[in-house]
Amino acid sequence: MKKNVAKPIVRKIKDNEIALEQFEQSLWIESEKTKDIIMNFPTVYIHNWPETDKYEVYVGESNNIFNRTREHYHNRIKDEKWQHKLIGKDATLYIIGHEHFNKSLTLDIENRLMHYLMSVDKVKQVHNARENPQNHYYPSDEFELIFRRIWRELHNSNEELFPNESVIKDSAIYKASPLHKLTDGQKYVKEKILERIDIALQQDEKQIIFIDGEAGTGKTVLNSSIFYELYCKEEKRGNSDFRCSMVVNHNEQIKVYSDIAKKLGITEKYGEVISKASHFLNRHPEDDSVDVVFIDEAHLLFTQGNQGYQGENQLDDIVKKAKVVVIVFDENQVLRMDQYWESQMIDKYRNKAIEQENHFTLTEQLRMKADKDTLDWIDSFTKSQIINKIPHNSYEIKIFDSPVSLEMEIRKKASKEETRLSRLIANYDWDYKENSRPQNRLQKYWEVLVKRDNWHKPWNYELKKELDTKQKRKMKEQSWAEQEHTIGEVGSTFTIQGFDLNYAGVILGESVKYRNGKIIYDPNETSNSKVTMRKTLSDGSKKNFAEELLKHEVRVLMTRGVNGLYIYACDDQLREALKKAELQG
């Protein structure tokens, strides 16, 4: 039964002492209930002011909004930084009340507002360095409804600063944000890791912390949450010398983490704290020069030298630089030969973490809204190379006869607000060379081409060449899938790895075949030279792992969709086997 929950009270005033005084006086002519809620109940507030073409915001909660706000004004006068920010600014203040607000509920509302606002393109920075999601309390079961109503009121007041919830939830920053309310499993791991880091830094002892987890098990959010809380703790301690870095060898993820650090004020206070591995190593040439280093997607680190890295193993080199190293790893997402991990190479760190009681495994699937039967089907396809009957449950797996019909369905999904983050993605079976043009002069872009249907679409990042400066500036802080024009492109594993889609339209090229009741991988059909090269192992022998890496590539693609997975297979036998499995399900 739907609960009868009162509407929130949302008031917008100019952000200065005169306007606050006038608002306080005006409450005496409001209803007694409204006056009581604003003056005597806990409230949440949002200071916001324009900064160039964006906003800066400060979100807080208080048991006495008038005293608290006057404290802010007084502190602004004393603080030169705030004086500079607010001189001549057209600042506004939102004051939010509700008859059921208590300390826990207002803290939860404050946290969610910070989470949403840091995910808004038009917000440059969110002030108030803390995270405070609450557990169960009265009336925690009303939180979602009350928050939605608050956001709707704010949206009606300023659509630019408070966009639709669906737009926020589709943003890459929202999905990687440290302000998510964690699951019980994630909270347990977070508390343990923070405890181990604290002890290690106090005792000045080397610690390896190792987190295993497959795609969609919440590794990034957990990593982000621990990283942010460490900075919040050190700021409260007044430790300006704290040295903590996040390393990830993924261009799109670097961008997301960097944006989060900027929006939460970490970059402003501590400088550059997010980087790729080679850049981190160049900036920290001395051993033990960093307190803590987090390595997200550690499976993407190089295990041999290449053009941009002159060492032998990036993980070995990074471990030397920090007192505490947090390693996040998924062996099923290694996509290149120069990132291939021999078991003994990674096990020495996993085993060290086990020895120090610092090994954790995440197993709960948090990305895909899928039942066990669906997850088992994807596991069978991507791991066991078997096609079972396709389950027809709430998660939609659908097989297509042509890339044309697949594209039409993905465009249809992308045209709806609630599923706009739906895109075509494919394995690397078609040529693509960054920063160069195809040799065929008749071919304008590097493309995914299905000859059988005479269908072709540009690879990711090709259409941005046609955008003007204004359009490029608009998409600067968006991941590939968030950019509107990418509905006309095909994403690759390297673009989409680590990110979510509402619906994933997967095109499987000719490297994925079906023969004699088994899925097989044909390295002769891939265009990824990083897969087919031979690997020199630690014993000096050379070996090819192309089939294993191609299998990983397909698993990355097939675990992107939150709500559904649509598939077109170029191989005739594979396509027929999938269609048969769909009918049998």
UniProtKB/TrEMBL annotation:
Q: Which CDD domains does the UniProt record give?
A: GIY-YIG_COG3410 (cd10439)
Q: Which parts of the sequence belong to the Schlafen group 3-like DNA/RNA helicase domain?
A: 206-571
| Signal peptide range in chain numbering | none
Q: Which SUPFAM superfamilies match?
A: P-loop containing nucleoside triphosphate hydrolases (SSF52540)
Which domain of life does the protein's organism represent?
A: Bacteria
Task: Spell out the protein name for this chain.
Answer: DUF2075 domain-containing protein
List the coiled-coil residues.
none
One Pfam family here = SLFN-g3_helicase
- Species source reads Roseburia yibonii
Q: Which InterPro entries match?
A: P-loop_NTPase, SLFN_3-like_DNA/RNA_helicase
